[in-house]
Write a structure and sequence with these properties.
Shape: globular
Strand content: 25-35%
CATH class of the largest domain: Alpha Beta
Helix content: 10-25%
CATH architecture of the largest domain: 3-Layer(aba) Sandwich
Mean pLDDT: 94
Structural class: alpha/beta
Number of strands: 22
Largest sheet: 18 strands, mixed
Length: 539
């Protein structure tokens, strides 16, 4: 078994024609490209041999435009000019770097639009520009697409979010501290972005200007979206594809493609899946995607499945760990509830008892530690949860051993009836695959901040000890639970440092150091049938 990582994969494909003996080139030229407000962005241009003009591949990045020479070599050898640019306020570019990504959007600043149209006006460009990028450069692509640069022909977006609030800063209304704050600090962004994040804990106009899903109808560029089930932005990749492929303008609608692999934003820590290398047609499309749109006017698109997704599972199961294709996402499935029962089991039959509940104490100063999942920093990926499952503040429900395999593909949600002694608290849910030897491998997880149970746009505090219904979104996955395995759901109220612990005081987290211990109760009786909904596909 070998690990497959989006970034190394894409580099290897784009550099397929480059060799280790190839001297890395200096830019043909460096320009300070003017934006509409007069700020100039540092931009390197690598031109291929020949007379030109050429189609152009553009990468914009906050990580320095230098160091992408291998991409330039590969692009040049395929007949493309290659252009790299520092984000506004980063490295050699002028201006301020906050709020990060917003300047590439469709508002006051439109650095993506201005850059693409500047490129198209140059004598070495044939008027066709495509964009490429992984992670932060992928997000910038998503942000620039709704501004509709006339000369943007196509995009290749690898692991980027579609909504900054819901997927990067405040998943489920809880602050993704270990991702957003740590990433901003590690890369020395202006503290203004973090300050603005803290000032806007609810989904308001500040965040709507960073949600590309609500302006998908403006997008006119066909896009290849690549993500991973354990990626930090996995649902963003999926939502981008679904909204644009269905609701985009005529140039993009029905012309996007989606690839979902087994991994995420880097290698997993302790568990890998066999056969997870990208399928041949998904691999070749990395550079061929640009050929299709910038050289062949869309010819060849029909050879690429609309959706390619990897079904994970037990490495010993010969029917698991396979690539599948589909005509759309999400694929047909039977949304099946598995109910939490008083004996600690998961069952497809709803409970018939009354007044069944269990109470645990949630102490923000002793949170459940993050162990895997959709994380940027270690530990991440499909890690064993069995030690965490034994904590007194983690309530576990486990099915009987399966007498036949069960394939789950699509969106997973938990419907939870719960109460708290506090004015506000969090509830978390994990889905795990329990192996016959006892290891409990994390498949998917999620969180909801109680004050945002009805809307992320407005805080509504709890009435202590009143029962409420909550929905926890665990995002999408594709996994085969093998015969003899068990399905497990773990409910708790924290997952730190991934999410900043809720102080239980009724005030937003991060405001002060005051915390209180909450007594949180979950209910699973006939009047409050808490359950997980699994999208089961026919075998």
């Amino acid at each position: 078994m070998r690990f497959c990582h989006n970034i190394t994969f894409l580099i290897s494909i784009l550099s397929i024609l480059a060799t280790t003996e190839t001297a890395l080139p200096a830019p043909t030229m460096t320009e300070m490209v003017p934006m509409r407000d007069g700020v100039r962005l540092a931009t390197d241009i690598y031109l291929p041999q020949g007379e030109g003009p050429f189609p152009v591949i553009l990468v914009v990045t906050p990580y320095s435009r230098k160091g992408l020479e291998l991409f330039a070599v590969s692009a040049n050898q395929k007949g493309y000019a290659f252009v790299t640019q520092d984000f506004r306020g980063r490295f050699d570019s002028e201006g301020e770097d906050y709020p990060v990504f917003l300047s590439y959007g469709w508002g006051e600043h439109q650095d993506g639009y201005d850059t693409i149209e500047w490129i198209a006006s140059q004598k070495w460009c044939n008027g066709k520009v495509g964009t490429l990028g992984i992670s932060a450069p992928a997000i910038a692509q998503n942000m620039m697409a709704p501004s509709r640069p006339p000369h943007l022909v196509c995009q290749y977006v690898v692991v980027g979010y579609s909504s900054a609030y819901h997927q990067a800063a405040y998943q489920g209304g809880a602050f993704r501290k270990n991702l957003w704050e740590r990433w901003l600090n590690d890369h020395k962004f202006s503290p203004e972005t973090l300050r603005l994040t803290r000032e806007h804990p609810a989904y308001d106009d500040y965040w709507k200007a960073q949600n590309t899903e609500i302006v998908a109808d403006r997008v006119n560029a066909p896009t290849m979206f690549v993500g991973g089930w354990y990626d930090i932005f996995s649902i963003g990749t999926i939502n981008s594809f679904m909204t644009i492929n269905k609701n985009g303008d005529i140039g993009a609608r029905g012309k996007c493609r989606l690839v979902m692999e087994a991994y995420g934003h880097g290698r997993n820590n302790e568990f890998s899946f066999p056969n997870s290398d990208m399928p041949k047609n998904a691999g070749l499309v990395n550079i061929n995607w640009f050929d299709i749109w910038m050289k062949n006017d869309g010819k060849g698109l029909e050879d690429i499945p609309v959706v390619q997704y990897f079904v994970m599972g037990d490495p010993e199961d010969k029917s698991a760990n396979v690539w599948k294709t589909a005509d759309d996402w999400r694929i047909p499935a039977n949304p099946t509830p598995f109910y939490f029962r008083s004996d600690g089991t998961l069952q497809t039959e709803p409970p018939k008892e009354s007044n069944i509940s269990i109470t645990y104490k949630y102490d923000p100063k002793n949170p459940v530690p993050t162990m895997g999942g959709n994380e940027l920093y270690d530990p991440k990926g499909p890690m064993d949860q069995k030690d965490i499952d034994n904590r007194p503040d983690v309530i576990v429900f486990t099915s009987q051993a399966l007498d036949q395999p069960l394939e789950v593909v699509g969106n997973i949600k938990v419907k939870l009836w719960a109460s708290s002694s506090a004015l506000d608290t969090d509830f978390t849910a994990k889905l795990c695959d329990v192996y016959p030897d006892g290891k409990s491998i994390l498949v998917a997880d999620g969180i909801i901040r109680a004050c945002y149970r009805n809307s992320f746009e407005k805080r509504e505090l709890l009435t202590p000890n009143e029962i409420y219904e909550f929905e926890i979104d665990l995002w999408d996955t594709a996994i085969r639970f093998s015969k003899g395995h068990k399905i497990r759901v773990a409910i708790s109220s924290s997952n730190s440092p991934r999410f900043e612990p809720n102080p239980n005081t009724g005030r937003p987290s991060g405001i002060d150091d005051e915390t209180i211990v909450a007594e949180n109760t979950i209910y699973f009786d006939k009047d409050h049938p808490s359950h997980i909904i699994l999208p089961i596909v026919s075998q």
